[in-house]
Amino acid sequence: SGEGWKGQDPFTDLHSLLMEIQALRLQLERSIQTNSTLQSRLEEQLARGAEKAQEGALTLAVQALSIPELPLQPDKH
């Protein structure tokens, strides 16, 4: 029995796999943290962009209201 281990100590293999799992878990946790940070920054930038877009639209509306209307000229056909 134990042919699948090819003479290696199963506990050494198990320990090696456990160490790899722990390293992968750490890497995953760091990736999740990085992702959360990037998502927060993106949401902040989008919110600021939306505010600027609203300010720009308001400025355009105010400018449009302050432009005096030209008197209508009769059509000359």
Describe the model.
The protein is mainly alpha-helical and 77 residues long. It has one domain. It is built from 1 helix and no strands. The chain has one helix spanning 10-66. The longest helix is centred in the middle third of the chain and has 57 residues, at 10-66. It starts with 9 loop residues before the first helix and ends in an 11-residue tail after the last helix. The model has no long low-confidence stretch (mean pLDDT 85).
Structure at a glance:
The protein has one helix and no strands. It is an all-alpha fold.
Could you outline the blueprint of secondary structure elements for this entry?
Blueprint: H1 10-66
Individual helix count:
1
The global form is rod-shaped
- The amount of beta strand, in percent, is under 5%
Average of the residue pLDDT scores? 85
- SS-derived structural category: mainly alpha
| N-end to C-end Cα span | 105 Å
- Cα gyration radius (Å): 33 Å
Which blocks of ≥5 consecutive residues have pLDDT under 50?
A: none
What helical percentage do the residues reach?
Answer: over 70%
Number of distinct beta strands: 0
- How many structural domains can be distinguished in the coordinates? 1
**SSE ordering:** H
Largest sheet composition: none
What key phrases describe this protein's structure?
rod-shaped; mainly alpha; 77 residues; single chain; 1 helix
